[in-house]
Amino acid sequence: MFQALLNKTKGDRWIWLIIILLSLISVMAVYSATGTLAYKKGEAVEKLLLTKHLIFVLMGIGMIYIAHLLDYRYYAGISKVLMIITIPLLFYTLIFGTNLNDASRWVKIPVIGLTFQTSDLAKLALITFLARMLTKKQENIKNVKESFIPIMGSVCVVFVLIALANLSTALMLFGVSILLLIIGRISIKQIAIVCAGGFVLLLFVFFLGPRRKTYMSRINTFIHPEMQHSDKTFQADQAKIALATGGVFGKGPGNSTQRNFLPHPYSDFIFAIIIEEWGTVGGIVIMILYLVLLYRCIKIVTRAPKAFGALLAAGLSFSLTIQAFANMAVAVGLGPVTGVPLPLVSMGGTSMIFTSVAFGIILSVSRDVEENANALTKEEKEKVKNKIIIGEIPAIA
């Protein structure tokens, strides 16, 4: 049965290996980091882990498998539906969403009572929608009225709606959008206008938004070392202690002490717990896994036969790796504190599900690349190779 399932698994084998390794690391790291949470809830850590995180990890792998079997071209149509749902949902979240840590980012699902972060859905919706629009508008991509305004309208609306409650996620999504615009052949002049407009929106959110005090406090404590070791830097200070005591090889799995002091050690600061238990070596291994993921995704992008597949794989892979390194940067003190989880590692149901769908879509594009490569005869492969070498075929054509 397992062999039959394995035979049906398509796509880049290295990405599948990275998914399995990150999932295993996630289970071990979360198992260790949730000890204090389980104690506070009066539950055994095994029960808390098995009834929540492990189930979501298995669901995530199932979602990856299902998503990678679906032809990625279907996501072009799905992206329209997702955008229609996402924008009103982001409005609803700002007004009626569940408030946690002075931020309204979550919506409670009726009946089952679970909450999910709408920005996770928005990231997936915007990236797939941008890939579709950039592909559809390639013939008149330089036209401001027909191409630029519709594309940038969706980016700006989603950016503002997310930034009002979650600036770090909005900035990362905006950065991914700019990268997609560059790959999608939007002119440098138009991209400069986008960046200028984004900067104006950023100033508006930063100085006039509902969370302006939180944003300014985090920036101030990051750029002013004299403010360290105060109640405002408690999270960053505890993360630094975890890093310092971890050493080269760490204290060993399950031996973290900072999990008892560090807020959210199983999500936002799980990388600090990993270094404390597995040392600098463990942290480097995690970084290498994400770098290999980015490298394999870039190979998929350059080999994708259709522009939509290339843009889709590029956008999703950039989103995952930028988020991963943002999380790690915060954990090691290279950036102000944010609420960004480590993809496929941090504890969090909706984050795990939407991250898994993103992985599945990337593998769907990879599967299409493999099938197209296998369909070519040896002679045809040589012709295509020669055309690429002399520059007759553009990278995302």
Automatic annotation (TrEMBL):
Q: Which molecular function term from Gene Ontology is one that the record holds?
A: peptidoglycan glycosyltransferase activity
**What sort of enzyme, by top EC class, is this?**
transferase
- Any single Gene Ontology cellular-component annotation: plasma membrane
- Give me the segments passing through the membrane: 14-37, 49-68, 74-97, 109-131, 151-184, 191-209, 269-295, 307-332, 344-365
Q: What is its EC number?
A: 2.4.99.28
Its recorded reaction(s) are:
[GlcNAc-(1->4)-Mur2Ac(oyl-L-Ala-gamma-D-Glu-L-Lys-D-Ala-D-Ala)](n)-di-trans,octa-cis-undecaprenyl diphosphate + beta-D-GlcNAc-(1->4)-Mur2Ac(oyl-L-Ala-gamma-D-Glu-L-Lys-D-Ala-D-Ala)-di-trans,octa-cis-undecaprenyl diphosphate = [GlcNAc-(1->4)-Mur2Ac(oyl-L-Ala-gamma-D-Glu-L-Lys-D-Ala-D-Ala)](n+1)-di-trans,octa-cis-undecaprenyl diphosphate + di-trans,octa-cis-undecaprenyl diphosphate + H(+)
Q: Where in the cell is it found?
A: Membrane
Family of this protein: Belongs to the SEDS family. FtsW subfamily.
Q: Could you identify this protein by its name?
A: Probable peptidoglycan glycosyltransferase FtsW
